[in-house]
Design brief:
The protein has 428 residues and is an alpha/beta fold. Helices cover 28% and strands 25% of the residues. The strands form three sheets. Strands 4, 14, 15, 16, 17, 18, 19, 20 and 21 form a nine-stranded mixed β-sheet that branches. The chain has an eight-stranded parallel barrel with strand order 5-6-7-8-9-11-12-13, surrounded by five helices. A three-stranded antiparallel β-sheet has the order 1-2-3. Helix 4 links the parallel strand 6 and strand 7 (99-101).
């Protein structure tokens, strides 16, 4: 469920009509619903019920500080994968004790930053990282809390580019070597083992892979405790999928996921950490664009929008589906037409949809891409020197721009001429 509904024939974000925002900030733009973010966070929180737990929002899915502050105000922790994301979480007022640091390539500088600013735990992914973190912690007179990310070799049955739990993936330590690696961790004085971490992939639409991974995790916890390790927390990652097409079957609900966690892991007495991103933010955002031209081709017709692959890369990168809807609601019996929905970037890959049945649309009409809140704005670029898309947050009948569209002067001003090309300095 989201809070983007037609009212009086016009698509609204909560209580705000999208044409009103378009008239103010121009198109394309991202718009997020506070009510949807709140509802989806609460679903996860309630699903885990009285199990000791922390819901850590995956910052990589949607990293705007206003969104992070909204979720932190509800009690969310944060899962970060870079020093930059850590800085965003801290800027949003999230205490270090509520921030988990994941990722395969943490640098020494990032380790220092987070140990100095406060961190709940590092999810360590290799012995090399473990040794580096131990050295950094000792040099700072600190002890770093860690989990080890284990790779359970479970097929998440998701897109190959977002599967993370198979033995050929770069993530984690093979579960077969976990006891050996935990023994190494226990021998390093700058580290303190607090738990185990597992994450098998993103956009999972079936609970079966989770069940397989959790069963392997439970067996490992029993073994590690027998070896003398204090396993207090289980970080289960994220990955629960969303329906990108409104006609699709509904993926498992958070309450079903929570029931599975209780069944497979509840007996271990561990605090549960989960790191949802897409299910909290995905359906909480739209990308709104304008039609530049409706173009007739020899074999197909095109809708050319002012949004492009640099604004929303998922269709080009993952062959991902996003429902595209007109902002002005069509009449129930209105004619439908087949369009290829494309952007203006000079690549054939700048295509959002092929053969999509839509009402007849023309230049100036507004359309909205649904389920664009996750991995939309965060993956945007300035390819073709196109300014980054502004972001707007709606709260009831109020809205605010939470990231401005940069001017061309700002974009060009980042470039620097070397002395031999700078005419103003040639005579100096």
């Amino acid at each position: 469920m989201d809070h983007f509904l037609y009212r009086g024939g016009v698509l609204h974000a909560e209580g705000v009509a999208l044409p009103q925002i378009a008239a103010s900030v121009g198109t394309p733009f991202y718009v997020y619903s506070t009510a949807t973010l709140t509802r989806h966070y609460q679903l996860f929180h309630d699903a885990l019920g009285d199990l000791p737990h922390l819901v850590c929002f995956s910052v990589k899915s949607l990293s705007n500080i206003a969104v992070l502050k909204t979720l932190a105000g509800l009690g969310a922790g944060m899962d970060v994968v870079s020093g930059g994301e850590y800085r965003r979480a801290r800027a949003a007022g999230v205490p270090g004790d509520n921030i988990v640091f994941s990722g395969v390539g943490k640098t020494v500088e990032e380790m220092r930053l987070t140990l100095d600013g406060g961190i709940r735990q590092f999810n360590v992914e290799s012995e090399a990282e473990m040794a580096a973190l131990n050295a950094v912690a000792l040099s700072m007179g600190k002890v770093a809390p860690i989990t080890v990310r284990v790779n359970p070799d479970v097929d998440a049955k998701t897109h190959a580019k977002i599967a993370t739990g198979k033995k050929e993936n770069k993530f984690g330590i093979p579960i077969s070597r976990a006891r050996e690696v935990y023994a190494l961790a226990a021998s390093l004085p700058g580290l303190r083992v607090v738990g185990v971490d597992v994450h098998i992939g993103s956009q999972l639409t079936d609970l079966a892979p989770f069940a397989q991974a959790f069963e392997k995790l439970a067996e490992l916890v029993v073994q590690l405790r027998a070896d003398g390790h204090g396993i207090e927390r289980l970080d289960l990652g994220g990955g629960l999928g969303i329906p990108y097409a409104q006609s699709n079957d509904t993926p498992p609900l958070p309450q079903d996921y929570g029931a599975l966690v209780r069944e497979k892991l509840g007996h271990l007495g561990c605090e549960i950490e989960i790191e949802p991103g897409r299910l909290i933010s995905g359906n909480a955002g739209l990308l709104v664009a304008s039609v530049i031209y409706a173009k007739s081709g020899e074999e197909r017709d095109f809708l050319i929008l002012d949004a492009a692959m640099n604004d929303l890369v998922r269709p080009s990168m993952y062959d991902a589906h996003h429902d595209v809807v007109p902002v002005i609601e069509p009449a129930p019996a209105s004619e439908r037409h087949s369009y290829d929905v494309v952007g203006p970037v000079c690549e054939t890959g700048d295509t959002f949809a092929r053969g999509r049945a839509l009402p007849l649309l023309d230049a100036g009409d507004l359309v909205a891409f649904r389920s664009a809140g996750a991995y939309g704005a965060v993956m945007a670029s300035e390819y073709n020197t196109r300014p980054l898309v502004p972001e707007v947050l709606v709260h009831g009948d109020h809205y605010a721009v939470i990231r401005e569209r940069p001017s061309y002067e700002e974009i060009l001003g980042r470039d620097r001429l070397p002395a031999w090309l700078d005419d103003s300095r040639k005579d100096a």
